[in-house]
Write a structure and sequence with these properties.
The protein is built from 17 helices and 33 strands. It is of the alpha+beta class. The chain starts with a helix and ends in a 9-residue tail after the last helix.
Amino acid sequence: MNELNDKILSVIEKRGRKTCTTDTILEALDLHSSMDFIRVSKALEEMEKDLLVFRTEGNGFATREQSGVTEGRISIAKNGIGYIDREDRESIKVEEGDQMGALDGDIVLVECRLWQVYGRVIKIVKRARTQVIGTYERTPRGLKFVPDDERLREKQMRVLTDKDFTPVEGLKVLCDIERYDGVMTLRVGRVIGHKDDPGVDILSILLDHDIIPEFPEDVMNQANSIPGTIGEEELAGRRDLRDVRTVTIDGDDSKDFDDAVSVERTENGWQLLVSIADVSHYVTENSPLDLEARKRGTSVYVIDRVVPMLPHVLSNGICSLNPKEDRLTITCAMQVKEDGTIDSYEIYPSVIRSDERMTYNNVNAMLDGDEELNKKYAHLGDLFETLADCADAIREARIRKGAIEFDSDEPDIKVDENGHPLSVEAKVRGHGEEIIEDCMIAANVCVANQLKWAQIPGIYRIHEEPSSRRMRDFVRISEALGHKLRLGQSSVYPNEIQRYLESVRDTNEFPVLSTLLLRCMQKARYDSSCVGHFGLAEEEYLHFTSPIRRYPDLVVHRMLRKYLFEGCTDLNAMKQDEANCTEYAESSSIRERNAQDAEYACEDLKKAEYMLDHINETYDGLICSVTPHGFYVHLDNTIEGLVHVSELKGDFYIYDKDRMQYIGEKTHRIYRVGMPVTIKVLSASTAERTIDFGLVGRNGTVQKKKPVFLKKRDERKRVRKARDITRKGSRHGTKKRK
């Protein structure tokens, strides 16, 4: 946007509700000539075409905000309704006929007045989807391409193919979108394989999220040209830490080790060294490797495979801190006081030689006194006990500051060689996992502090304060479950959330309340500005410790080298790096969300596939959310399924949104969030990635719990009011994914 456009927008904004005509703008800008009139009129015409301003009554102009126009990402539910989130306000809803052909994830401009909830899309700013994955299925009219995404199945499509392509029933293909409007035009670009072939299901999800397992030829050529050993000349200017007792601690299946730790007891606490693989030494700016890493943004970890940000020859080779091998690193050396606070730190380039590749399981066992393992690693002395003491002190200091610790289950899904799930369990975090987490967070805080106060361009990891609207909704739910949460008048503080979680930790509702509260939080993201991390209660925070698998970490390393180690003072270079960091932060945030969506989709797929082997089996669980079409039950193994309202037998059940519960119209039996129930697995769908439950009693019959009666008159009024709403819109509610 040019300078004149900025000035025009400023004038219109300042006018507020007053009519702002072309003459008003000319007068405000002190422009009087006929050429000025032509220039401003032309600028307004272009701005109107670009939907930056809108014409009002009286031939005036208004900004987007004044006209009730919002830019946002549209999320389209399976029932066809689109949603655009708004800060501190209810999401805008867009009926299917008002979406102007927008697809799920598109960036759109939507018109919705302040007093309205429903809006209409007036422009598609950016398309999120460029490809469609589908399967050829047999129909009475022959083979037909059916998109995997059921939200696209009602759209008219035309599929173009090359002459040598022959469709086969069950064949899964990836198509490029050549035209969006009217009849969507697709062209088959890649054959993925038959839908029943091992691994095709996961590969399809990855490709659908634009996650490509293969690397381009020029990227592999550069990766293969990098020597697998360190030359003597590469050690210049590095601090030699090869004689310092150092280990890596990772999961059993890990193959890329990008962080190593070392610790020694001091008179006033500990000296903690966190050494991170110096990936930026090998992946130089704007090289093929760098451009590909920037495009990918992150490594993607799904059920049975990893799609790395960097080729395995690097991530598992010269960039991995393999034991007994010299490796180039960047070290953050911290002086940790007895109370866990960081007294001082120093960041420098280094070279290390890891003594051992340790696993979380082994470290946990050693800390628990496993004699055999302690004997095997006796040459490391008291390293792990000292490390545990130091990390525990760091954690306690962080908690004192107000850092929030949410308890959320992560699934651990084991599959056989064909990708069929054998087990689904909740991951267990031990002391070893916490130790590494604490050490990495401490290093990240120190590096963020260094970049901020030295005014070095960088990418920060930011987590903003939750919106007041979401917190108000949570307070209402929490109070309905009998737990009060008192918040400040103007802002939410991390220690308030922390104290609340501690107060409900021993209640039956804790797992649900913790999850609901986590969903109230803003999503952490990357930004070139340092605005702090709410969840960690830190004023400065970034990601420095995983440059093998996260692009922002790689950029931070590059900035440290350029400005801290090499002492660059070029103001033009700094200005360019600041602009680059803004761009990289935005793209990395998008790629991170995309990777998470793919990971969740793969988990949902395998959970549904696992439950297909357990139809009619019963489990105990907790009601974790209540919706107009039923409620979801969370099992101990992290699997969630829907108990549809039609499965609530023996009464007509009314949905009470305010208290997140269902109430029997006659019996007054209640099903609410946090309530323990026993369920039977009724069905599961890998195509839709959903699981359906039914309620059972302990003897396998329809559950007959002792009714909970509503005694207060106002609650009976609530029932009658909710009943009217339910009968109008929810009696025939459809199943919908959370």
